[in-house]
Amino acid sequence: MIQIKKLNTQDSNFKDQLSQLIFFEAEENTQIEKTVAEILSDVKKRGDQAVIEYTKKFDHVDFSRMEEFEISKKELNLALESLPIASKDALEEAAKRVFDYHNKQLMSSWSYTEDDQTLLGQKVTSLDRVGLYVPGGKAAYPSSVLMNAIPAKVAGVKEIIMVVPSPHGERNQLVLAAAALVKVDRVFAIGGAQAIGALAYGTQTIPQVDKIVGPGNAYVAEAKRRVFGVVGIDMVAGPSEILIIADEKSNPDWIAMDLFSQAEHDELAQSILISPSDVFLNQVQESINKLIDTMPRKKIIETSLVNRGAMIKVKTLEEAAEISNFISPEHLELSVDDPDMLVNSIKHAGAIFMGRNTCEAVGDYCAGPNHVLPTSRTARFSSPLGVYDFQKRSSLIKLSHQGARKLGKIASVLAHGEGLQAHAKSAEYRIDNE
Asked: Which of 112, 232, 313, 318 is the S-S candidate for 211 at Cβ 3.0 to 4.6 Å?
């Protein structure tokens, strides 16, 4: 029988209890840090040969040339065409919806001209080359391919290099099919920190990318953290999270399963339920104990719920919204009568699922919005992965003669004030230019 922590906002120590619950700090693993640092340094120095050796060591794939790790377009297309009809249809429909949603995010260049004919504006351009890391082997994450590759494609990225580990040579056909569907340019059957190093620094075979996106294990996350600055990264994500605000009219079985849907990711995932109804919270607790034995990943769910889960009793839905904003969850479900009203009080959340019919799981796969979301309270200052992550902005400044005289005088005064005489003189030359 699972017993989830119960908190009440009326308790005198509620804030301390809430802080202890949500402030997750991953234990520092110096061995992982040391190993990753060594791998990255080696890949930077020796390129292909280092990647080949580490892949043999960790994934037990023994190829002598890097070219053997590249998966051909023929193999990718065969994986797509060989899918069962239901799987292929589902993958195609999900991809279409993700494309449709992200097409609306595309930013355009703009400019305006002032009265003296000075032009100011912004030029938007796509990144040239992006690296996509996808977990492989027995794990199948075709949705990660869609969610990371599609916004890059919409943004106009010229080349997407995908890496996916293949332990013991096992290549996941769903992942390869997804890569074929969204037309990933090149795919290599490599993974781990060595794959991140190859993308970040480039090797004799794998070109250096501008940004690396996609989920991975602790070694991959540490490698991404270390190469940031050499290349861009999407984020260093923490454990998955769901927060559900529900009233007494919600179905307790539905809510219990929604909590399970995050808890089954791993033991560190966090599932929290907030409600103004004690009766409903007890009903969900009963549903959890009724349904848990039906779950193949029962042990993971149990560990997650007992160690990191919670039910929070609040006075009102407005108070629930305040707590939600403090937690700033990755996923937020509003299972209430009027989610359109309650969403007005929400400031910080990665994705908001509105209404009783909207479960978080559809967001993971096929609703359309991206499932790569900020975790660990970073929704306070960051956003879901999107087209804008694969575009960059350059400022445009074109001064007319009159504009140069006007702005040059202002710049000269400010530059002298900062003691930067060359700045001042540079602007003054344009003032005196006839």
From this structure: 232
Distance CA 196, CA 198 (A): 5
> Do residues 378 and 328 lie in contact, with contact meaning Cβ atoms separated by under 8 Å?
yes
Give catalytic status of residue 330 as yes or no.
Answer: yes
Question: Which entry of 330, 333, 348, 360 is annotated as an active-site residue?
Answer: 330
- Per DSSP, which regions of 45-102 are E strands? 70-71
Q: Which of 102, 331, 348, 371 is catalytic?
A: 331
Catalytic, 348? Answer: no
Architecture of domain 238-380: 3-Layer(aba) Sandwich (3.40)
Tell me the per-residue pLDDT of 196-239, one tens digit each, with 9 for 90 and over.
999 999 999 999 999 999 998 889 999 999 999 999 999 988 89
Q: Over range 6-31, report the average pLDDT.
A: 88
Q: What is the dihedral of CA 416, 417, 420, 421, to 10 degrees?
A: 10
Taking the whole predicted model, whether its pTM rises above 0.70 is answered as yes
φ, ψ (nearest 5 deg) of residue 392: -130, 160
Q: Which residues contact 348 (CB under 8 A, 6 or more apart)?
A: 324, 325, 328, 377, 379, 380
Topology alike, domains 30-116+126-233 and 238-380: yes
Coil vs helix vs strand at 377: coil
- The answer to whether domain 30-116+126-233 has CATH 3.30.420.40 is no
